[in-house]
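Lecture 7 notes. Example A: sequence first, then its structure tokens.
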Amino acid sequence: DLRKQARQLENELDLKLVSFSKLCTSYSSGRDGRRDRYSSDTTPLLNGSSQDRMFETMAVEIEQLLGKLTGINDKMAEYTNSAGVPSLNAALMHTLQRHRDILQDYTHEFHKTKANFLAIRERENLLGSVRKDIESYKSGSGVNNRRTELFLKEHEHLRNSDRLIEETISIAMATKENMTSQRGMLKSIQSKMNTLANRFPAVNSLIQRINLRKRRDSLILGGVIGVCTILLLLYAFH
């Protein structure tokens, strides 16, 4: 249950971070486009203050999701340290470490994107009305946007590969758990049989004596039948 919650939060964080990154990369070009439209009749749908409010809202949401994911990881760590799971401790520790790495990557990516956004916003405020610098930065931002899109696609492919690996690890853990349970049952049955054999040795000796008497009686009965048969044959021929 904790792993399912962690995966759900990780998926939500992944989508939030992608949108957050797109917002940050489009902020500068949006500011340049608004300056070009100030002299025309058209008005952009999303102005600077709206983007700032959206940035603050998304940052708060991502911070809350990171806090929830941290709490889930702490609960998983408490479970792995609790008693009753010694045979699966190594596998669980590996899974916990994977979720910790994912949380660390998301946290690092969030702080990096946030710092870049704040740096871009401060830079845009300092540039002012210098047309040449704005156009230069706009062209550079377009290249960065294309590179960022490529990086985001590659990042998505890597996340999908990680999810497939996690599912494979889950299947292997379930198989190992079932095999461990079956081995425990077989050991329990064997120990019970050994206990019964050691507790009742007289029963074994009695059974052996009964078998010996049966064999002796069979031999005697066979001898009597053979003697009678011989006597009958002698009587018949005489």
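Example B, a different protein, same format:
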Amino acid sequence: MSSFEEAETEETVTCLHMTFYHPCQKEKMMFRCLNFGKREQVRADEMVKFGRDSNICCYNLMDTRVSRIQFSLQFYRKLNSSEYFFEIKNLSKRTKLIVDQTELGYLNKIDLPWKCIICFGNYQILAEIQEGESVDYFETHLHLAEGPILQERSLPSLQPTPENGISSSIFSQNKSPMEIDENE
């Protein structure tokens, strides 16, 4: 047998691609501690934390408006499934975390969609999961966006646009939906 036939089967690795944007990133350099463009291995049992406290967080954002621990990501596998997922949890008591259109308060968590935008304050992070098979670790691959992610991707804004063109602010006064007869 050749060495090729005897070689161990190559295992693919789940990779979480994250593209970061902030309107003041050039002036304030809040991403200077992030390692862009290089894949980094993370043990599967580690909880990955993002925030400004370098003693606790793996990924530091150098901004006093960011919580000491802003949010965390946990790699896991659902019971009776071979698929791997990430769970995102808001760890900030002051700032809500928006994942696509879902608002997370303090200690709220959800499964991270395969492709989504994470927002808090003026931060926008595009997260994309590349599937893999490894059970021991996953990888992160960080990128820096040149412009706003929400505008670049032509994603809908977080505020719904009514069909009649009337601003939703006048409807926010009513607590419940109001039914109107078509003939009126």
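Note on Example B: The chain has three helices and twelve strands. The radius of gyration is 20 Å.
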